[in-house]
Amino acid sequence: MLNAARSVLVVDLDHTLIRTDLLVETAFGFLGRQPLQALNLLIWLSRGKATLKRRLAEAAEITPADLPYDTAVLDRIAKARAVGAEVYLASASDERLVKAIADHLQFDGWFASDGVINLSAEAKAKRLVEAFGVGGFDYIGDSRADLPVWAQARSAITAGPSRATAARLAAVKSQVEHLPAPEGRPLWRSWMKLIRPHQWAKNALVGLPLLTAHAFTAGAALNTLLAFVAFSLCASSVYIINDLVDVQADRAHPSKRQRPFASGEVEVLRGAVVAPLLLAAAAVTGSLVSWKFLAVLALYYLATSAYTFVLKRKMMIDVVTLAGLYTVRVIGGAVAIGVPMSEWLLSFSMFIFLSLALIKRHSEMAVRLDAGMPDPSNRNYRSSDLPVLLALAAAAGYSAVILGALYLSSPAVNTVYHHPKVLWLTLPLVLYWVSRAIMLSHRRDMHDDPIVFALTDRISLATAVLVGVIGVVAL
To answer: What's the gap between Cα 395 and its chain centre?
Structure first.
């Protein structure tokens, strides 16, 4: 129990006060802003973790108010203060970050790594004993590195330790106070939100070549399914990396702040481990299709990585890249079943997906404008660009319809369809759908991802069914 004579409560930072790891966060934030400087991370690490943390802290963009704090720990701090205890923050994170957080929460003092000494485990225990004496403080921690500190503390308080850590602590302290775990959705649901299985619907685009080439065989269907799975696993790997890079920006967004990394529901370090595992699974699945398909999958991954780390910050290059990534899925589907890639299909895909990418960017910017938020730091767009984005989306969408008309007017259509004139009925449907999507975005009724919207909206699905029926009749 705390006493009124001189009670001192010391609180750990990473995974205790905050539900994240600042070292991993700042490392990915650094890579997101300066991907060509990745080698510096290894150079700094070779000079010691304290040096690495200092360099990353110098480049970090952390807003203390946006961090995911553990409410149980905050309540415990409030309880200590209520009985007159002094409260200190002690962390192995760099002092530049620790000081900012300590000042924000009005701690009485702080201890942190200083660029030379990495204040963790025994080093932290020694520093606290020098400041408060053996048994002169209570300590809240979470990990195995905190065991030496708990051993020197008057009382041990835990915040979400592993079973192994809790067992080892029980051997050191006879009485341990365990704070309640943070409330939230089940962990499996957080992981589902992180890997975004609902976004896998986009990868159904690999089936377009099978439909347009009328390659309805068991082998083609199996390879298309494998291609779908490979693209889905690869995409989920990229989603995790993207969220790791954007975690600080996501916390400043009204809806993205609920993403698993930004909210602290999933540990950033675990995400950094799972991402390459998903990529490896994608590569194995892709190799079952063909080596040519695996090369397309590798191209997709490289392009998405370039988008994540560099291209998404480049005005207009980002939307052209997004359109290209959708088109690569179509190319992958063609390679998977071994059919020639139709220039008509690829051209149509590029324009229609460019229109959707522009609508996506418009929807994201509209949310920021309506919420009174400043222009994003990780996108090179301004709120004043909204009318231009919709105009460009309309131009690209209508260009896709014109390309469709040119295809239906060409001799190529006669080699695939017995009744090609029936296909002209699809053009007004596509024209209607594109126009409606633009209007919904203008009215702020569009999902932030138009592809997901297209696959969940009733009118969009009805339009797709009508286009399919027309296609079957034209056969």
So the answer is: 30
The shares of helix, strand and coil residues in the chain, as percent rounded to the nearest 5, are 70, 5, 25
Tell me the H-state helices in 106-246: 122-132, 147-152, 163-172, 187-195, 208-212, 218-245
Whole-number pLDDT of residue 108: 95
The dihedral sign for the CA sequence 154, 74, 267, 269: negative
Q: Are 77 and 15 in contact (CB under 8 A)?
A: no
Query: For position 377, what pLDDT does the model report?
Result: 65
Residue whose structure tokens are 């929460």: 105
Element housing 10 (H / E): strand 8-11
Judge contact between 179 and 140, C-beta under 8 A: yes
Exposure string over 165-174, b if 16+ CB within 10 A, otherwise e: beeebeeebe
Contacts (Cβ under 8 Å, ≥6 apart) of 366: 386, 441, 444
Residue 371: other Cβ atoms inside 10 A: 10
Which tens digit of pLDDT belongs to each residue from 307-321? 888 888 888 999 999
Question: How far, CA to CA in Å, does 170 sit from each of 17, 109, 165, 166?
Answer: 22, 29, 9, 6
Determine the pLDDT at residue 466. Answer: 94
Give CA–CA dist 337/344, Å, rounded.
18
Q: Are 21 and 100 in contact (CB under 8 A)?
A: no
Q: Which two tokens stand for residue 173?
A: 């302290």
- What are the phi and psi torsion angles at 89 (to 5°)? -105, 130
Query: Which regions of the chain are under pLDDT 50?
Result: 1-4
Cα separation, 200 vs 235, in Å, equals 8
Listed residue (213, 332, 232, 233) closest to 278, CA to CA: 233
CB 370 within 8 A of CB 422: no
pLDDT of residue 2: 42
Task: Report the distance separating Cα 380 and Cα 252, nearest Å.
Answer: 16
Q: Please, what's the b/e burial string for 249-285 (b: 16 or more CB within 10 A of its CB; e: otherwise)?
A: bbbbbeebeebbbbbbbbbbbbbbebbeebbebbbeb
Element (H, E) at 24: helix 22-33
